[in-house]
Amino acid sequence: MAQKNSNLATGTSGPSQEKDGNSGGIRTVEMLLRLFPVGLCVAALVVMIKDSETNDYGSLSYSNFTGFRFLVHANGVLAGYSLVTAAFTAVPRPMTMPRAWTFFLLDQVSTYLILVAGAVTTEVAFLAYKGDVTVTWSEACGTYGHFCKQATASIIITFLVVICYILLSLISSYRLFSKYDAPVGYRNKGIEIVDFGN
After folding, report:
1. Whose CA is closest to 165, among 96, 99, 129, 113?
2. What is the average pLDDT score of the chain?
3. For residue 59, what is the DSSP state?
4. CA distance 78 to 112
5. Which residue, of 59, 94, 103, 177, is most buried by count of CB atoms within 10 Å of its CB?
6. Claim: this prediction has a pTM higher than 0.90
């Protein structure tokens, strides 16, 4: 406990924490979970970019939909982030508090970014398949079937990325919160902070 509190104050990890934080098993799983989304993000991005269809009614492309463009950008950003963090994770380093917080925060932001991209494009695809009579938005997939199938494939791949990033968020939060204790109770200007757990 004293070692954890000392490490909290200095922002470093002790010898036992270096071993736990960078153990071969967790580091290997984390590195693979960071590498796997690179391929998935690139696949979802390429499938969506190549998604266009032309027929007698006109042409339709992913660039006609803001949600699909957002999905392409989000997958591009996450592919780069995943590659950089996989390279960073591959090199054994002691886990310091600033490094643990950085991974935790960036993994959280990345998870929410790709989740939002997947949710938005799912809504757009739903409207393309079903339409919305109340706003006179007719379905498009009856006319542009290939376009809808390709967009759906990209969305499914994106949700696989979401699963990887949920697991990465759990790993980074475990690393952060299992290594560093919250600050101990203290007295400030006559106000005592009570810890009900003890």
Report:
1. 113
2. 81
3. E
4. 11
5. 103
6. no
- Give the DSSP letter of residue 132: B
Q: Which amino acid is at 91?
A: V
The residue written with tokens 């960036």 in the block is 106
Q: What is the DSSP string of 31-85?
A: HHHHHHHHHHHHHHHHHHHT-EEEETTEEEEGGG-HHHHHHHHHHHHHHHHHHHH
Higher pLDDT, 192 or 180: 180
Q: Residue 62 in contact with residue 72, Cβ under 8 Å?
A: yes
% of the chain at pLDDT higher than 90: 40
pLDDT, tens only, 47-64: 999 988 888 888 888 888
Please give the Cα distance from 118 to 101 (Å, whole number).
Answer: 26
Report which DSSP code applies to 194: P
| Residue 182 DSSP symbol | P
Q: Which of 150, 196, 137, 149 is nearest to 51 (CA)?
A: 150
Beta-strand runs (E) in the chain: 52-55, 58-61, 187-188, 191-192
Of the candidates 71, 19, 34, 77, the one whose C-alpha atom is nearest the C-alpha of residue 167 is 34
CA 143 vs CA 30, 123, 136, 160: distances in Å = 43, 19, 16, 28
Residue matched to tokens 């379905």:
139
DSSP assignment, residue 86?
A: H
Neighbours of 144 (CB within 10 A): 22
